[in-house]
Amino acid sequence: MKRAVILLSGGLDSTTTLYLAKRNGHVLTALIFDYHQRHKKEIKAATKIVELNKINRHFVRTAFSWTHSSLTDKKKHVPENRNLVTQVIPSTYVAGRNIVFLSYAFSLAESIGAKKVFIGAHVQDYSGYPDCRPEFLRNFERAANSGMKSGDIKIEAPLINKNKKEIITLGLKLKVPFEHTWSCYEGGIKPCGKCDSCRFRIKAFEELELVDPLLRK
Amino acid sequence: MKRAVILLSGGLDSTTTLYLAKRNGHVLTALIFDYHQRHKKEIKAATKIVELNKINRHFVRTAFSWTHSSLTDKKKHVPENRNLVTQVIPSTYVAGRNIVFLSYAFSLAESIGAKKVFIGAHVQDYSGYPDCRPEFLRNFERAANSGMKSGDIKIEAPLINKNKKEIITLGLKLKVPFEHTWSCYEGGIKPCGKCDSCRFRIKAFEELELVDPLLRK
Fold first, then answer.
1. Domains, chain A, ranges and CATH?
2. What is the pTM of this model?
């Protein structure tokens, strides 16, 4: 049995990764984090995706109480209409987030006998977030394995070289229910349309001459 | 200012590391984990050490709910009178524990502008626990830095090549209040004397012709 762990945020990328991994025959356990992000909407989305796919899941409730990120501190503003081609790390950066998430994922993987950890990291993210870079993922895989009993768990980031348009195209083929995913950094009734995450998503749907189902609802 | 984070369990090793780092002029922030270990006694010990030294501290409450470790599952038995020179990983191993702990420590370090993370890992531990090995610590340092904004945080494991006897000798010089530390895997009134952690500690005090102050109380 091809057991694997998937880091599931409830966003478009990790959900597409889940459908891809499942299509390729993996028996998945989803790992979902409540890390005091600005809203619970993405956690609800992740839970819905898990239910639709009838897969196992674990929740980790934690906090990065010391960080100064606009993604975890509601008193701060999420940047709006930012230059998306800049290489500047945005204020939504949470120090060490994927390092912590992957650490738990490796712990879970070893405990359930899974040999793969899936993550939805990709090329557009790592222009801004250092913990989405392929170099980081490779280094982390080596480090974690050198500190574990099993020592043979792989990180799979199948979207790493894709942009958002290519991810949506793949998602459409895999019948990903985009209407149940949530990418916006804010937790409104509809996506704000102004944060980086919304803008990458809306732009990609537009380029494909499609309307994001979240905007249709 | 030489800011640093220290992973503090409340045991003899991490407490000695704290006194050493402080003596060497570091301004410390302690990171203490409540990860559903068998008892709260070591957390109380860590809190006491923090109070005695008047340093900042952060708590992380988490769980490794999926692990099968005798250190987090009270229904299991902690091994007693085990062969201490074996290389077999004991049932007290918690999958990925130091990987998770170091991940949080790097997140905290970057957030407060600290350039060092102190950990009390040492030679006797890494015979059994893979996440105490020097190779793992080096790999993790490289990995974490490649996934962070700062990228220049160092892991300091000053006890790495010492055995318990040498650690106690160093602690005595540094006036470490061993009576306020707690090493036993069980949470009794006195240390059980049978778990690996007790036996390494008792043996080392005996070799130095001293009595562990915890046994005197």
1. 3-216 (3.40.50.620)
2. 0.96
